[in-house]
Amino acid sequence: MSWDVLLLRLPDDAASLRQIPDDYASAPLGSRDDVLAAITRAVPEADLSDPTWGQLLGPTWSMELNIGSEDPVDSVMLHIRGSGDDVLHPVFRLADVLRCKVLDCAEGELITPRQTSGWHAFQQYRDRAVWASRQHRQPPLPADPGRNLQTPLPPGRLITSDEGDGDVQPLRLSDRPATAGLWARIHAEHTRSGLWPLLLDALDPGEDACRPWGSGELFPEQMSSPTDHEPAGLLAEWWAAHTAADEDDDALSAEQRLTETAPYGQRRPGTAPSRQTAADADDLAAE
Fold first, then answer.
1. Does the pTM of the predicted model rise above 0.90?
2. What DSSP letter does each residue of 71-122 carry, written as one string?
């Protein structure tokens, strides 16, 4: 998990992405050799033994410099981990020497050297996620999951995970399809019982094993609650991952991949305004 900021060439007077025209195309930072030389001037302690992916270590933080393999270099993505506001000093030294603006990918906005809110928000989100992952390991189901339910469960069996520790039973699978209304009745008891009903399809409806559920192809240790994730930060990570071409295994070139998110390219446009809730989520799910 990292705080990702993008260094890219934008108009000197731009203080916000809202001031950038939708059809604006940022100029390249320069040739690969020129960019590497500029990085060395700004942060001579950086390890550029891999010219596509540099490393920079600080007293309480680490930084990966995703330079990429394209020549000329269009932008540089920084993946930052750890803590300490002094990490912003090398970020903006790099921005100055490359004549770039600094885009906080999580907040979807340009930042200044004294603007630490995005960095602090990332650390808070990371700490919450780490704490939650340590506190909320998937417990095994009781031998009789239905004992806390007023609604009788259809005949079924407990499924043991064949991944991770291999001794976790996160799922009870019924032997036959659910009857109408069963999901809603079990869901209504969730707060008291702790059980959550799911309607599951098999990969191959004609196969008796009901894969992947019946065969235990589950990895509970890698599961997390949706409430553990901050939407803007998660979307920013997905956006950065989707727009970064994988040179070793990617059917699309870097240019083709960026056309999928045109006109924004690697610049995530931010979060759209939320809509007013039209219906209760639980009622809609039950329906």
1. no
2. SSB-EEEEEEEE--GGGHHHHHHHHHHHT-EEEETTTTEEE-TT--HHHHHH
